[in-house]
Amino acid sequence: MTARTAHATVFGAEPEGRWAAPGRVNLIGEHTDYNDGFVMPLALPHTTVVSLSRRPGRLLRLHSEALPTGTAELALDELAPGRVPGWAAYPAGVAWALLTAGHDLGGADLYVTSDVPTGAGLSSSAALEVACALALNDTFGLGLGAQEIALLCRRAENGFVGVPCGIMDQMASARCAGGHVLHLDTRDLAIEQIPFDMAAEGLRLLVVDTRVSHRLGDGAYARRRAVCEAAAARLGVAALRDIPAEGLEPALARLGKETARRRVRHVVTENERVSRVAALLRARRARETGPLLTAGHHSLRDDFEVSCPELDLVVEASLAAGALGARMTGGGFGGSAIVLAEAEGAPAAVAAVAGAFAAAGYRPPRVFEAVPSSGARRLPH
Ligand code: GAF
Q1: What ipTM does the predicted assembly reach?
Q2: Nearest CA residue ID for atom 7, ligand 1
Q3: pTM of the full predicted structure?
């Protein structure tokens, strides 16, 4: 059954349109977005697709193909943070963010399908939010641009779902372009689309999903963010982005706690790595980014302390098998890693990771290629 037919079967009405939003993988720039810093995600070919039909009244009905838990029914005028459990909190949060921003919505039925892996650190939540926002924006003629949509989706996640994430994932899903990485300044949201064609340089970028479930809601992410904000306040800057690389040592000397020093060192050095990777990609020297990716992993493992044994093993095993660079990607505590390898060396790196996982008694990882794909869009009817 196609999604269109499924929509009609569940809701008794043909969808008026379908909208797709991708998951993302981040090349470099981790835990920098809530410090006003720099990030460099690319959209994956995996998308969440939402079909929508309007309905009379002010009820929002939500159905996910993946979850046989039935249809969630929510009154638009009763949406409030903390009241909607499970996956429906994301679409409901988007409607809430739109309504509280003063936009006019009516009743709607939304049917959701997705092939973005969940819990894999690949932004399935942002893909769901952005696809829903796009569907509501187009259908109710709200006239919002991609950046406004990303900001509203972050507001949904922060204020309604309760995850204190930064802006990277929503901007990646809304604004990435096929064949490019999105070099984003998360302070003013200025973007640079940098061409990213690994095949042309004889390279491959692989995503390794460790299948260790990653959850940002358990407090560790929020604690990292709070330490960074407290350190910025202590250093008298608006955000850690304002500490330049050459100002790192004096800044560290002013921080009392070792934990704060480590977190600050990660953020400042990571922003510097994003700039260096951007310069190499502009010069079509992607091969040379490998050591920067690996340095980013070590910083996330040792200074930011958001890695886990499975992610570390992907990095160690792939590098030992000749990969050019590797790092965890996304929030961490599980989820996925990326591996940059020579095209002809990629199979050996994948085999080495699979072998190391088997030897360690871990579940086999899922591996696929990161092909830079389009951001959110309306699909042809
Ligand atoms: C998660 C968050 F949602 C992002 O905002 C970002 O902070 C990322 O972790 C870490 O770079 O994906």
Answers
A1: 0.99
A2: 31
A3: 0.97
